[in-house]
Each structure stands twice: as C-alpha cells, then as structure tokens.
Design goal:
This protein is mainly α and 114 residues long. It is built from 4 helices and no strands. Helix content is 72%, strand content 0%. Helix 1 runs antiparallel to helix 2 and helix 2 packs antiparallel against helix 3.
Length: 114
C-alpha cells in the first residue's frame, strides 16, 4: 500500500486547521479547527501504524485513541469556557476578549469585602 494519499490528506487537513485557528474570530470555529488538526494527526498515526512494521503491534492506533480522549476532554473544557464567556460578554468573538484586567477596574468581590 502506498501511504502517499493519506499523508497528503492529513497535511491538507492540518493546514486547513491551522488556517482556521489563525483566521477565525469565533471561538467555536477555533475549537473546530483544533479538532480538525487533531484528526489529521490521528490519520498520520494510523497510516504510519499500517505501513511501518513496528516492534509494538498497533502502537499507532493506541496513540490515536489517546489523542481522541484528549480531544474529547479539550472540547469539554473549551465549550465550558466559551459558554461562560458568552454569559459574561454576550459574544464569542475572540478579538473582543480582554486577556488582562483594566488597570483602574474594581471587581465586585473587592467591593463586597469592604
């Protein structure tokens, strides 16, 4: 079997995922692009497992299962963050998210403790 077609397909999927992460403004679409990149890695792992006779049998498929488990955990945490962001800011646009607190801002917790 020639592994050229799966490797090229995985490279295209990974490139499309990188483009989606770099160009999208919506947080949900960024998470979908990350999943696309992880699936491209899974395709490479399974293709390498079937074409290269390794010392450990089915090692690429086992690594692919670990990647699937990590992707599911990442989506769970990522969607929880996106939902909380939507509740607080009423938008999921990545450009509108402030990563730092403004210098003169007083939080509600600080006001409640006074």
């Amino acid at each position: 079997m020639r592994p050229v077609i799966p490797y090229v397909t995985a490279a295209l999927l990974f490139g499309l995922g990188v483009y989606g992460v770099l160009r999208r403004r919506n947080a949900v679409l960024v998470l979908m692009s990350v999943e696309l990149m992880l699936n491209a890695v899974n395709l490479v792992l399974v293709t390498a497992d079937t074409t290269v006779r390794a010392v450990l049998p089915h090692s690429g498929q086992v690594f692919a299962l670990f990647v699937i488990v990590l992707a599911a955990a990442e989506i769970g945490v990522g969607l929880a963050i996106v939902l909380q962001l939507y509740r607080l800011r009423s938008t999921v646009a990545v450009d509108d998210v402030l990563l730092t607190e403004p210098a003169g801002a007083v939080t509600q917790d600080a006001e409640a403790s006074r």
